[in-house]
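User: I'm putting together a teaching handout on how multi-component assemblies are represented. Below are the sequence lines for each component of a complex, exactly as they appear in our records. Could you produce the 3D structure of the whole assembly as structure tokens, so the students can see both representations side by side? Please keep the chain order the same as the input.
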Amino acid sequence: MTPDSIRRERRAARLALLRMVFVVLALGALVPWLANAYWIKTLTSSLALAIAAAGVALLYGQLGLVSLCQYSLLGVGGWVALRVGHGLHWPFEACVVAGGLSAGVVGMLAGLPALRMKGLYLALVTLMLAGGFQVVISATGFPDGGAGFLGRISGSERLMLPRPALAQGEGAYFAYVAAWLAAMLALLELHRRTRAGRSWALIRRGEAVAEGAGVNVLLYQTWAFGLAGVCAGVAGALLSGAVGQLDGRAFAASESVMLFALSLIGGAYYWAGALVAGLLLRAVPSLLVDLGVNGYLAMVFFGAALLHALITAPRGLAGQWLAAFQRRAAKGRA
Amino acid sequence: MIEIRGLTVAFGAVVAIDALDAVLHAPVCGLIGPNGAGKTTLVNLLSGFVQAKAGEVRVDETALLGMNTARRARFGLRRSFQTEQVVEDLSVWDNVQSMLDHVPNRHRPADAQVHRALEHAGLLDCAAVPGAELDLFRRRMVEVAKALVGEPRLILFDEPGAGLDERESRVLRDAIAAIPDAFGAQVLLIDHDVDLIAAICTQTLVLDFGRRLALGDTRAVLDDPVVRRAYLGA
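Assistant: Of course. Below is the structure of the complete assembly, with chains in the same order as your input.
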């Protein structure tokens, strides 16, 4: 009953999903053999941030929504992971899940204005939320093994969040984060290709169109914000595991703007775009430092890259590369 | 069957539909009138995008006005828009499937329903083609196919043939005319193409300034001197 063309399309989609998981896992397996400890650490952060970028891309690519508080949600995930890790001594995976779910709930709450606002107004409201988080986290700090709700230690050495037993070393932890990235990207792709993705596509076309098709717009928009929040929370928890602790100063509101801009540059419509965004966010500044150039020059580079993306690659670097690859493949076939 | 009793819709001081009474029972009904007559307002009201100030609307003896838009879709109400609303990055199949995701699907497997709708609309050969690659005719036919899945009861087509050439209009006309027998749904068709209305609608309602100008057998309505003067300019 299903036409052959649709069966082929579905098979191709399944293969693409498997290819994506394989590529990310292969990265996780290969990089520790090729890079030194400094670069492994840097790229671990890049992979974790790629998960958060995938959440930003979900909101923008699927619904056209600009959320500028995703880096704060990363902080929420990191805070919860550190708190339950130190306070309740949960296994690391449970800390990551707790961080992801908590940030998902906060993300849903942050997304509530989206039900009434769009575009610039939503961006401003979410940026203000990010500013609020910056103030709160500056005052409270991240849990570091102390008692009480805030879990802050005083007068003694801060405790590190223990990593999972199977990923104690830097290389093993890199592969562990790559596995989380593969799982999260697969989760998002499955959403995109099924009922949720089709519903988001209808909402993107127009809320009246979606409502006319029976879509519960409130539910699906909130679900997208929650899912993007889970991505950010998982990223935050994995970052807390990478370093063992988190610093409140790293969660300024401006980081959310940077995360959004780099997600656009990377490509909000492709999984590889999230990977590019993660690399731009962490690996490029480190590369500049490695080359003896001031890392802050990365801002100039990012500005130029954003202009490039806006002018020549509206679907991001990943979109541009994919199009070039497809053109080349088509030429090869001809 | 659509029963409309004392229906009034107002936007501030402007009365778009004024105490309208009508019973539309034909399998394919036409809705015509000059620009600003209230046709699209009536379709928007039936599909839940506009609130009534007064009156009652029943479809197959079910009161419609208390339901929100999504519930009306689940009840079996479908509509197309004047501007086609195909999602560019979904395939034709997924465009139709996206409609079926949120409406009842009790009697046939989802794939079978989508297949049947695409077959009716003549789109099976381009099922995997993304919306962005479709020409206007195929986009219009996707809108028809979307209306056919998930046990439709009443389908509202708002100028479905706008921009189509004569041959394409003929294909569209045949597809719409066959809907009641093939899918069991009543069709309410708005169009400025009087030939299209005359060819497939057995009953037609004519609106003018939000009021009923005429209602009845399509041929008789189109021959009515009052209608010809107000709408056809004769």
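A couple of points students might notice: The mean pLDDT of chain B is 90. The CA atoms of residues 92 and 126 of chain B lie 7 Å apart.
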